[in-house]
Predict the 3D structure of the following.
Amino acid sequence: MSNITTHEPQSDSAIFLHGVGVLYRIPHDPIKTFKEYVIRAVQGRIKHHSFWALKDIHLDLKRGEIFGIIGRNGAGKSTLLKVISRVLIPTEGRVWIKGNVSPLLQLGAGFHPELTGFENIYLNASILGFSQKEIDEKVEEIIDFSEIGDFINVPLRTYSSGMRARLGFAVATAWKPDILLLDEVLAVGDVAFKDKCIDRMNLFRDQGSTVLVVSHSVDNIKETCHRAMWLDEGQIRLVGPAEEVGNAYQKDMKTRRQGKMRVNR
């Protein structure tokens, strides 16, 4: 199933990908240091193997849409988010993004473990492109939303993964983005905070933002997204309504598990 009917983005497109591929070249043998890499490269002793982390990706995501991406580990989900957030340049294909992108690609990204939560708010928000004045105006709101409490004044290394996720989400969503990218953020934290995050995502949707959610949890995708995409070994297996895609993925995973059980008997 494909959702591409044209080679060009439409007036209501927020994210448009056409024929996107990412090729990685990996050394056959592990290289421990940069010095060793340089020496072996000069001597011509580095052999690589190549693989496509993404291949022939076509997507057209609309403004005001919450879109999910599911797939097994190594399917290419995080690579695709890095392409959309402009962290990674694809090997081939076209990427068209309309509006500012607020990425929360992994827990702790843009944070420093030795700085306090309060200091990390300023660090992370400045990386996202906001001025000190803009951060000053939002800092109390960020702290309140994160529900970190007194931990806001202690080093981030003392935080649990759930606390880091709360703070990261609070910073990334303090300003309404045109496009919000979330990688496994809803997988940590308690149910009440997850519901709070979903409420904010729905608010952004109602205001015309596009939200892209990556999750291993099919239930999260079904609950929060309009449409979804199933990625498998870097290629699109299915794009469609979140419920339909989620069910197809769960059926496939069940079949794989049953196959492994038969082999191991």
Q: What stands out?
A: The domain at 65-85+100-264 is CATH 3.40.50.300 (Rossmann fold). The longest strand covers residues 13-27. The chain has a mean pLDDT of 87.
